Structures are given as C-alpha cells and as structure tokens.
Amino acid sequence: MRRYRRYLPIPRQQLTFLYAALRVASFSIIIMLSIPAAATTASTATTTTTGPCVNQTATKQAFFGDLHIHTGISADAMLFGTRTHPDDAYSFATGKPIDIFRTATSMDKAISVQLARPLDFAAVTDHAENIGAVTLCLDPNSSAYDTKSCQFVREPLPSDSLANFAEKLARQFQTMYSSKEICGEDKQRCTDAMQKPWAEIQQAALEWNQPCEFSTFVGYEYSPTDRGSNLHHNVLFRTAEVMSAPISMSDVPNPFELYRRLQEECNESNTGCRAIAIPHNSNISNGKILRLDYPNAKTDDERKKLAQLRRDIIPIVEIFQEKGDSECRNGLWNVFGKPDEYCNFEKFRDWQGAQHEDCQTDTGNGGFQNQGCVSRLDYTRYALAAGIAEKARLGVNSLQFGVIGATDNHFGTAGDLEESDHNGRDRPYSLIEPGRMSTGGMAGIWARENTREALFDAMEQREVFATSGPRIKPRLFAGWDINSSSCDDPKMIEKSYQHGVPMGGELNSDGRLQSPIFLVSALADPGTLLHSGTPLQRLQIIKAWPGKNNELHQAIYDIAIAEGSESASVDVDNCERKGSGATALCATWKDPDYDASVNAVYYARVLENPSCRHTGYSCMPGSANPLPDFCDDDSIPKHIQERAWTSAIWVNGTRAKSEIVSEKN
C-alpha cells in the first residue's frame, strides 16, 4: 500500500443551504404501466453534425449521464403524481428547470427543480409493459375507459408499505394483462395504442440529441418478474434505427427470449439497428437475473450458444441505483477471503435489520417485497468470478460485463443526485418507507467524443464506470510494460493505452509468472459553486476468482490513502465535513498474491471521505417542517461514504500449476 502525499486539499464546503431527502421511489416492480403521450414543447436542440467533434481525444474523456429515467409514461410514476414526459426529462438533463409535483395527492403544489450541472448524455427508459392498456384506460375517449378493469387500473397505489404497494401493483398488472375489456379478444387494441407513446419517446430523443454536446439514446425498460424476483433490463439503441415496438414481458417473459429477439430483429437485421440490454437491481433478484442457467438447453453446445448470446447483448450491468448497491455482500455462502469493511453500503434488503437466508446454489422468490433468500449471484463481484468458472466449463463467459450507475428516477429528473437537494422541501419525500432509498448513481463513460455512436461503442467495449452520485473520474489500466513510475509521467494515460489495457479489457499472461502492473488514478468531484466536492480518501483494487468445489474468492487491497484522511468524519448535526483528503490520487500496484495459473478479475474502487447522506440533510433544523420520523430512528444512516467503481480487467493465466512449480524448482 502506498500513502499518497502529492495531493491538493479541497476546501471545506461552505453551504448556504443544507438540505436533502429521498426522491419519490415508485419501485419499478412486477409490472409497469404507461400513460398516453401528451403534446410537448419542441426543443431547440440541433440533430446534425458535419464531422468529428472539435474536442475529440484519442486518450478519451469522462462523460457523465443517466441511462435509467422514467417519466409519466411509466404507470408507477404516473400513479404517484409524475406528469413529466420524455421532452421534460431531456430538458432537465441539459440544465433547464422543470416543474414536478410533491405527491399524487397534492397536484396543486408544483415545485421547480433544476440541475446545477447538466449531464453529457441521457436515456428515457419508460416501462414497455402494458403501454397500450394504460393508454386506453387513461383516455376518456377510448372504448375501454369506463370498464371495471380500467377503473381498477386507475386506482392509486398504496404507500403505507413496500409489500402492499407490490401486491396492489401485481393485481393491476394481472388485470391489464388478462382483461379482454381493455385490449379485446386478440389484444389488438392495446397493440395499436402502444404506438403513440413509443413515437413520443423516439421523437424526444431525436429532438434533444446534439452531437458533441449532449447525447440521447432511444430506450425502454423490459420489466418482468419471476414470483416477485427482479429480472428487469433497460434496452438502448445505438442510433435512431430502432425496432417497431418495445418488447415487454407480455411478449416474452423469459430474458433469453428478449436477447434472441434483440439479436435477430435488430443487431442481425441489416437495417442499421443495434441494441444492448442492461440488467439492474440484481440485489433483489433472489439469484435469478445473473444465474448461470440456460432455459431449455439440454447440451453444453446449446448452453454455450445461449451464454454467447447473453455476452453479446449484455456488455454492462447497473451496480448501483436508488434501490441500493449490487457490488458485494459479506458472509455469503462459499465466498472466501477477509470481510470487506466497505461492503456494507446502501444495502436495500437490510432495511430495518431484515435478515435473510442464503440461497446457496438455489434461487428464491419475493426480492421486491424484501422476501426470499439472498444469493452471491445477486452481487456483481461474485458474478464476475462465477463467469470465469463458466468460461472454463463452457468456453464462453456470459458474465463478462462492465458496470455503470443510474438513478431509476421516476420524476423525469435525470441525474438528480445531489444529496443536499433531497430534503422534502426542494424534492419530494418518498411515499414508501422514507429514508430507505438512495438518491441513485451515475453512469460514467470513457469515450473519444460525446456522440451517440462513440458512447455506445465504449459501452460495448465496457470502458465504463459507476459512481454512487459524485462525478469522480477513475481510471484503471493493466499491463506488463506499464511503468511503475507512471503517476509522475505527464503522458501517463497515452502510454497506458500503448502498453496495457483499460477497464473492460482482457489481458493474457502468455506464460509470464510475474504479476502485471496495475495503474489506478482518480480525480475528485470538484462540486458546484454552492456545494464543493468531497475529498478522496483511498484507492482500492478488488480481486475475485473462482476456486474448486464451487468456491469463489475475494481479496481487497488498499493501494493509496490520502494523508490524514483516515480520521476524516462528518458532523451529522450540521453536515460539516472534518479532516483532510485529496483532489487526486494515483498509484501503480502489483498483485503480491499473483498466481499465473489462476484466472482472475480485478477492478478499482475509489472512496471519498464521509459526508452527509440525504437523510442527514433532511434532519437538520430548517430543512423540512415538520422533520420526518426517520430523524429519530438510529437504524437509518445519516452519513454516507460515496464512491466510484471501475469496470474490471480480466487477467487470464495460461500456465498449469504443475508447470509453474516445476519451473520454479
């Protein structure tokens, strides 16, 4: 470990306003509905470009955005009072103010909200499920509007508990899915009604896409569940060439059928259409969404084809969003290595001390309702290690993915992540279990320029990273020819691309016995004029690999710690940060436990000093009136240690253990 002294201290934050609270979290669960498209105000954004961006760079730039946004087209959002549309979401993402409503029961109390810093890219991903049915049920002129089924669909969802919310939403979904009153005998009415909101989604992305300045992606969310377990994916398209309609769980309940249709009807269609799918919230999937199990495959050859299909369609996974962290969990079955002291972070399923059985090699049910077992495949770290074992078995690693963060925002307020903004006064409180939700995460992409095509290509290459909200810029490289003094080299990044591979890459040992050299660097989020960024505390490398007898292993290494930062803290009574930290950290590192016979995966984690969580800001005098009940609940954390995660680098050992022992002897 290296204690890094060449840092610049960040001044303490001088806040005029200290406030925060939870966003209204509508919980994208079981099935999501949709409202009919409304007339929108056309943006003034241009959509053409004459060539490469002026600021294009071969060493790539970090772009920040949100690829998981819901508007009033998503029925769960609509039922809680959201009336924004895709045009509003993109307007907000570019820094313009929009109005949102505090709650579904106080529609006269609109508040104006605005991002302090615009995003570089965004995608509206409203739920595909039952768009047509809800469109019909909310249109007074439709033949289905006055039916009993539509009257039930229009009933607001309960907000007293997540369990009741989920139960009612499930019944509303079942009504829409099975009701002939709404969709007709052949469901054609719903199919036809879906086209209007789908056209609105595409049109908004077209109008707001401004190459080199702000990029948009046409997308939607595919939202199936399996007995209460999350199997949701966001689908994104590279260009304006998209499929004629979004694919919903009503069309295909099995994610592998989604992958097949995206591959055949888009990627292999020779129309210019290209799509990827991004799973999210593996932490509430009860071991299902990243499970190494292939439906209806009877032979290894059939399993290999399905594994390759998933690898092709899923280059990245959400590691963090408003429903918590999906990186890691201590104490899981057959995971070996010392506990990770920074792993107990924003654990959605641990709400109010909930306890869960371990799925072990099985799966469970009910994750959305915080029920059922917890699996090691609910967390990306162990899924990455399990994917290495799958490659040894089948010849394909279907879990070779990068990671991003997202909000899963249900207000249309893309990238609305500042903890101090969410206090129930400047942002609405969550109507369900206030205090539980995170404000969400951020997607980071290293790309040559800010265009749809460059960003999408970087996602396919997995050169992406995630943050829990701040705009930290982490980098990770690995190679045997990287200079151990690279941190002092002004051409550090250029040479690292020449002599190594970046995050998302694969590195073959080619018979070498020594560890490659890893380069990790990070720049702190500078913050805004009102809210300065929090200093960085440490850089870590996380290593994971499979072992014998279904074992998975982990090791956590501190490779750089800012001087004096280990004693840093935050006073939750006034949200004042204390202690020093760094604006930049950089270190090179070799694995002291490297074994050339072992295939392993390595990724970097960057930690800030502690700061106030939105619940801490919410409980400060002068924030909300009255203060929320969770201010007196010591089980709800009031501080947070924000962080960033890089995508991994896969290091493939090519020597048998017996060869290495013989050579050393």
What does this structure look like?
With 665 residues, this protein is an alpha+beta fold. The protein has 15 helices and 30 strands. It has a 15-stranded mixed sheet that branches.
Task: Provide a short characterization of the protein structure.
The protein has 665 residues and is α+β, with helices and mostly antiparallel strands.
Task: Supply database-style keywords.
4-stranded antiparallel β-sheet; alpha+beta; 15-stranded mixed β-sheet; 665 residues; 15 helices; globular
Low-pLDDT stretches are 1-50
Counting DSSP E segments of at least 2 residues, the number of strands comes to: 30
Strand content: 15-25%
CA(first)-CA(last) distance: 30 Å
- Helix-strand category: alpha+beta
Which word captures the global form? globular
Largest sheet: 15 strands, mixed
Helix content: 10-25%
User: How would you state the average pLDDT, rounded?
Assistant: 88
Q: Can you count the helices?
A: 15
> What is the gyration radius calculated from CA atoms?
24 Å
